[in-house]
Amino acid sequence: MKKVRFGYGMAIALIAILALTGCPKPTEPAVPQPNAKLSSLTLNGGAVALTPAFSQDVMYYTASVPFATNFVTVTATAVSADATFTINGGSATSVNLVQGENTITIAVSHTLNGMTDTKTYTIAVTRLDPSAEARLGSITVTEGTTVTRLNPFFSSDILEYHTGVTSVASEVSLTVSPVDANFSSVTINDVDVSATLSGTVTLTGGSTTATIVVTAEDATTTKTYTVEIIKAAAATLPFTLQVIESINGTKLGEVDYSVFDSSG
What global pTM score does this model have? Predict the structure, then answer.
């Protein structure tokens, strides 16, 4: 077996080749990097939807709320437990809303190993205009425990009705339900029933009219419904029913009775 001897010149050449091609170096541990991303972001606990759905890599969102919602609560969680963030430049999580567009910014900062990462998430929240919906979804008239029938049958777009009650009725209960739950007010015969949506109507004479006025959320648009409540005529009509048929010349008999008319 022959031995290979390297001369001085060959050794220099070998060193030069290794320098050019590179020698394996020990792997250095990666330096942890700061991370200023959020892991979650919600409005009103998720009740207000974000568009698009939240993703830690998406920085801009939109949302809309009805006019009745005058503030939202922002809840944010950072990926890094020691990251800090502000909401519209402060620490308050509740943000008041004006009518129209409102901008909410969540600025996140995280410092680690002498390096700082920042991210800014933005939500454009639109508080919608107040509704002009002033229609009713139902009207119910009750005499005692009996619900009377409206004529014509109820429809949100029909404003005038009548119904019948017995001749002995002294009052009825009237209950309504607005189409828009965010209505401004409801009155029955000028009495505000916004809290209960129900009122008692005292009956006078043979006919009593109940007037229902609904004011929409915009505090301007109104609808007026009327229900004419008609008492039945109570008539006692005594008369004798005489059977004229006979058997073998014998009259079958007579019947005395009264008729009470309670039809409407």
Answer: 0.66
